[in-house]
Amino acid sequence: ALDAQRRDFTLNALYCDEAGKIYDYVGGYQDVIARRVRFIGSAEKRIREDFLRILRFFRFAAVYADGVVDGDGVEACVANREGLSRLSAERIKQELFKLFLAPYACRIVQQMVDVGIMDKVLPGSVTVGYLVRLADIENSLNIAARPLPRLAALGAANASVMASWRKHLKLSNKESRCLIALADHVPAFSCNLSETTQRQLLYELGEEIYTQCVLLAWSLAGDDMGSSQWREVINLAQRWCRPVFPLKGQDVVGLGVAAGPEVGEILSQLEQAWIEADFELDKQALNLRLKSLVQRL
Question: Is the pLDDT of residue 88 over 80?
Fold first, then answer.
């Protein structure tokens, strides 16, 4: 009973013994049945114990309360929102990314914007409409949600906004590279791309980033979710097997070029020619070009 009083929400203060008997000291069981997320006792007191509970309150509502928030809880969160500035970026990011994957994420994010909570989490304006469109497209294609594309959607995949949020949330190197790739490459996508250009982008970006770029570009374009053109672009990853460049460093060294940066430069030049030829140059054709290139050195 004492432990229950120290927890955050009533649904997190349920206990069960080995015989299956449930112990409920704060009305958590009825809140589970009613799909309510409520703070235990004084909401303000619970929040001041750990300001992360503000974000947890909204995330739990997005998961367990069908996107409906408790009025008293919201009021306490708004009154104590300045406390979010005391939290580490890592804790905020972790909670925010969990929220993005919740079933009612879009509804809750909009409510966080409306009451002034999101301003304390992400600097600058956010575009919830793009997040809603992205979620709808993902659902229509049965594609699992990912937190970074949803973060990018909130910032309209704007490069300067992404750079600001990347630093603000202290993203990992891997997360940063992904967010930068989305911001840099989304503008290159449209539903009217030739399949040759699509293949070049898929080869350059890899299946995961390519797919996320298409989803984001589709969301930002405002085109119909049933668009057959966008579906063709996103389905390329299933229709086309990304090839492997036929040449390796040893092929260059074997022609007398000393191992070092020059080998990489030669391979890069030949790979670009291979890409521009729509990947149709075989190893024999590439070797002929390699020999001609080495002879001119």
Answer: yes
Q: Which helix (H) or strand (E) holds 200?
A: helix 195-221
pTM: 0.90
**DSSP character for 278?**
T
In this predicted model, what pLDDT tens digit does every residue of 113-158 receive, in sequence order?
999 999 999 998 899 999 999 999 999 999 999 999 999 999 999 9
Residue found by looking up tokens 């940063």 in the block? 176
3-state DSSP helix/strand/coil percent for the chain, to nearest 5? Answer: 65, 5, 30
Question: How confident is the model at residue 124, as a pLDDT?
Answer: 87
d(CA 9, CA 37): 6
One-letter-per-residue 3-state SS of 9-68: EHHHCEEECCCCCEEECCCHHHHHHHCCCCECCCHHHHHHHCCHHHHHHHHHHHHHCCCC
- For CA atoms 226, 187, 171, 61, give the dihedral sign: negative
- DSSP track, 235-272: THHHHSPPP--S--HHHHHTTTPPSSHHHHHHHHHHHH
Q: Are 228 and 191 a contacting pair, CB within 8 Å?
A: no
Both structure tokens of 265: 């430069």
137 within 8 A of 218, measured Cβ to Cβ: yes
Q: Which pairing describes strands 22-24 and 14-16: parallel, antiparallel, or unpaired?
A: antiparallel
Q: What is the pLDDT of residue 225?
A: 78
pLDDT score recorded for residue 224: 81
For 209-257, how does the pLDDT look when each residue is reduced to its tens digit (9 = 90+)? 999 999 999 999 987 877 899 999 999 989 999 999 999 999 999 999 9
Could you tell me the CA-to-CA distances from 55 to 72, 246, 254, 271 in Å, in that order?
15, 50, 59, 47
